[in-house]
Amino acid sequence: MMNPETSSNTGERWPVALNGQHERRRPIGDAPGAFAGIKAIGISSIRDTLSSRRHSKDFAYARGDYLRSRVLVVGMIFAILTPLWIAIDAAVLPKSTLAYTTPGRFFLMAGLVATIMLARRSRARVTRIRIAAGLLIALPAAFYALVLITLPPGEAVHLVGYSFIPFLLVATLSIFPFTLAESALAALTLLGLHILSQHVAGTWMTPQGWEQVWLLAALLVVALTANYFHLGLLLRLYREATHDSLTGLLNRGALAHNLQQLEGVLDQVPMSLLMLDMDHFKKINDSHGHSVGDQVLRQFASILRQQVRKSDFAARYGGEEFVAVLMGSTPQDAMEVAQRIRRQAETSHVYNHDGKKVPFTVSIGVAGFRAGETFDDVARRADDRLYQAKQQRRNCVVGE
């Protein structure tokens, strides 16, 4: 098979796992004190929850699935309750007002159904899922705004229960793992909607109006705080559940999820796969100890992260074996990347317990994705190329 050497560092052999830009974790000993450690964690957490720019591609897919499930549930609840509220409108609103609210509710229900259908058909489509989540907040807000704008003067006082729509949508924000930037945008929109309703009702800049604005602002702060902790907890749990603790690359549990996400684009963009194996790793362990072997694995994982792009995936395959999936790269492009990785590894080293340099090298097999192939097919061909590299002279790259 792929690796003629075995190592006590390997543990269980894992399937190929994919990883995007990796969330870095600071070692405990790096901080000069407990306060500095807490401060670093806080700053990192705020950066991670402020926007999705720092999120790895694999986490973006995971958050997309998380958002999608909530869009489907909340969307169905809204779609069911929207027509039922017509009966309440008929009981408390005058006929002149019903002429505006009833058609609006049917249009709202149609929009919610369309949003649910969009979410159902958006598996692994992160952008479309985010649009669906935004529509779930925007549609009720737009419905309320249109009703307010189209109502004749003086009719707004009859809108029993409608003034609670901004407050309901603010509460809905806390259900979703939105970033702070996304939540802030929605919050400003809802605050503007509430101010519009006060202008129509004639309560703007009155004590009653200020009281309602203050209450809505307080709820918005609570919702943004909930988003911060919600997304932060999701990030932390995701990292712990999917990332290898030694190298920071994805673990076995994340493999199946990432493969499923990429199955739909195999025939749409060129992709290549690298299989990488550390040379004579067992000898390093036996000669210098397992702690030095761990240093080698961490150092090589760092090299791999430096050489792959943000759109690429890199992962620990198992033990001293690694894998990288290069998005939009032909086999020729992948050969160049593999050579850069090999050369950087060849010139790198770690130090043993005596302060002596411990060099290391890597052998790499390269294979490109072909039409109709699965990941297993490509991994098998890359595995064969890696075996050839091991049989030849090691510290080399073998491609197709």
From TrEMBL:
SUPFAM superfamilies according to UniProt: Nucleotide cyclase (SSF55073)
Pfam families reported in the protein's UniProt record: GGDEF
EC class (word): transferase
EC number: 2.7.7.65
Keywords for this protein: Membrane, Transmembrane, Transmembrane helix
Catalytic function, reaction form: 2 GTP = 3',3'-c-di-GMP + 2 diphosphate
Source organism, top-level taxon: Bacteria
InterPro entries in the record: Diguanylate_Cyclase (IPR050469), GGDEF_dom (IPR000160), Nucleotide_cyclase (IPR029787), Rev_trsase/Diguanyl_cyclase (IPR043128)
A cellular component term, taken from the record's GO annotations: plasma membrane
Signal sequence coordinates: none
Gene3D superfamilies reported for this sequence: 3.30.70.270
All copies of domain GGDEF, residue ranges: 269-400
Biological process per Gene Ontology, one example term: cell adhesion involved in single-species biofilm formation
MF-aspect GO terms: diguanylate cyclase activity
Sequence intervals crossing the membrane: 71-92, 98-119, 131-151, 157-176, 183-201, 213-235
Protein name: diguanylate cyclase
